[in-house]
Amino acid sequence: MTVTPDWIAVDWGTTHLRAWAMAGQGLTAKPAAQVESNDGMGTLDRAGFEPALLRLVDGWLDTGAPRPAMLCGMVGARQGWVEAPYAPVPATPAALVPVRAPCADARLRVFVMPGLKQDQPADVMRGEETQIAGFLALNPGWDGVICLPGTHTKWAQVSAGEVVSFQTFMSGELFALLGAHSVLRHSVQGEGWDDDAFAAAVTDALARPEGLAARLFGLRADDLLHGQAAATARARLSGHLIGAELAAARPYWLGQNLALIGADAAAGPYAQALAAQGVPVTRTDAARMTLAGLSLAHDKIKETT
Amino acid sequence: MTVTPDWIAVDWGTTHLRAWAMAGQGLTAKPAAQVESNDGMGTLDRAGFEPALLRLVDGWLDTGAPRPAMLCGMVGARQGWVEAPYAPVPATPAALVPVRAPCADARLRVFVMPGLKQDQPADVMRGEETQIAGFLALNPGWDGVICLPGTHTKWAQVSAGEVVSFQTFMSGELFALLGAHSVLRHSVQGEGWDDDAFAAAVTDALARPEGLAARLFGLRADDLLHGQAAATARARLSGHLIGAELAAARPYWLGQNLALIGADAAAGPYAQALAAQGVPVTRTDAARMTLAGLSLAHDKIKETT
Question: pTM for the full model?
Answer without folding.
Answer: 0.93
